[in-house]
Amino acid sequence: MKVRKAVIPVAGLGTRFLPASKAIPKEMLTIVDRPTIQYIVEEVVAAGIEQIILVTSQGKSAIENHFDYDFHLDAVLYEKKKTALLEEMRHLANLIDIVSVRQKKPLGLGHAIWSARNVVGNEPFVVLLGDDLVLSEQPCCKQMLNIFDEVKESVVAVQQVPKDETYQYGIVEGQHIRDRVIKIDRMVEKPAPGTTKSDMAIIGRYILQPEIFGLLEKTTPGHGGEIQLTDALLALSNQRGMYAYEFEGTRFDAGDKLGYLKAIIAFALRHPDIGENFSDHIKHVAAQL
């Protein structure tokens, strides 16, 4: 079955970016000249997905507004003959069909995904976390869809991390069936040191079969009263199998201050208008250190 829908949870408070995120959703913090969430949406569009479901909460209307048509702005840009900007804003408003559902209580990532069940329906879907940006030649989401077409089962994106950092991630264990593809045997959420030999960590990209919704509904809340996605993923992998894909590209944790700054530099260096000058600036700054 073709994967047509993507779920993007954006209901979090963004406490790691306070006070900047007090009045502005963290997903609207900019990387060069566009908000973080736009890069995620553009990745989805480039992968051929037809619809996005935003899982929102109170105070997140700026995200929806960003992708909406703005008649007043359109008229101003038209009057001032800012043709390029006008075309870009119209293109933004027509990128993809976007609907929103509300996560009424902050009960974790698993609950956020479960909140989209009625819109997703009985079909496989993509989940992308707004904190994770992937810079790659082929969109990470598209890479994963190619693997899904091959294995016909759920796929999680993974990357190799230092052994002494595995405790910060969900870790997968399993057998390599070919280059970059692992048949998952076990998943461990933030394992204690010495409890796993694997260094393959799950990052914020998933393709999930719809059975995940029933499993999330049965999942017992864990730490902080939150419904953990990893618990339901493990149950799903036992029920019908699951694969991990080591994607090609560089991932940035844009929900972390240092990761966010690294993302700005990486994307700025590739920007068609400022990349060359910014590269010269970076070299100049480095020479002064």
From TrEMBL:
Domain Nucleotidyl transferase: 5-263
Gene expressing this chain: galU
Class of this enzyme: transferase
Molecular functions per Gene Ontology: UTP:glucose-1-phosphate uridylyltransferase activity
Pfam families: NTP_transferase
GO BP field: UDP-alpha-D-glucose metabolic process
UniProt cross-references to InterPro entries, sorted A to Z: GalU_uridylyltTrfase_bac/arc (IPR005771), NTP_transferase_dom (IPR005835), Nucleotide-diphossugar_trans (IPR029044)
Family: Belongs to the UDPGP type 2 family.
Membrane-spanning parts: none
Source species of the chain: Candidatus Desulfobia pelagia
Protein name: UTP--glucose-1-phosphate uridylyltransferase
EC number of the protein: 2.7.7.9
Reactions performed catalytically: alpha-D-glucose 1-phosphate + UTP + H(+) = UDP-alpha-D-glucose + diphosphate
Keyword Nucleotidyltransferase: yes
Keywords, comma-separated and alphabetical: Nucleotidyltransferase, Transferase
